[in-house]
Amino acid sequence: MANIxxxxxxxxxxxxxxxxxxxxxxxxxxxxxxxxxxxxxxxxSKVVLNIFPSIDTGTCAASVRxxxxxxxxxxxxxxxxxxxxxxxxxKRFCGAEGLENVVNLSDFNTGKxxxxxxxxxxDGPLAGLHSRVVIVLDENGMVKHxxxxxxxxxxxxxxxxxxxx
Length: 165
Hints:
Blueprint: E1 3-6, E2 9-12, E3 28-30, E4 36-38, E5 46-51, H1 58-71, E6 77-83, H2 87-97, E7 103-106, H3 112-116, E8 133-137, E9 143-148, H4 158-163
Parallel strand pairs: 5-6, 6-7
Antiparallel strand pairs: 1-2, 3-4, 5-8, 8-9
């Protein structure tokens, strides 16, 4: 379990992130059109997993905007923005913002992704949502970078994530 904070107040996650050098757990998440996407759908591409509590918060929205901007410049790389928001909310946000270089995926129906990746918040006002995490995978699904952001309100280290690509 990771010890993180929300507004300086301690909260916890359900486990530990996948270790650098390990194979990423598989996942099954819901796309904006309500179809299912799995890790294997992105095999052969480098993948940035931009994971956050909700698209409807300032920091989460900033991370999606930031990665959207960077993603347009990346070769053979997919940026997956993952939260427990409904796919409709994710689609609405990206449509309103004109964001086209990221793939939104939702864990709304089971929360299994958050549990399998050890990043589900287990206590406090955001219990059940995902913590703020960035994981970078190579073309074979191996973890190259994993960052658990210590304070939920802080943005991730974009440069460290991009450098791992």
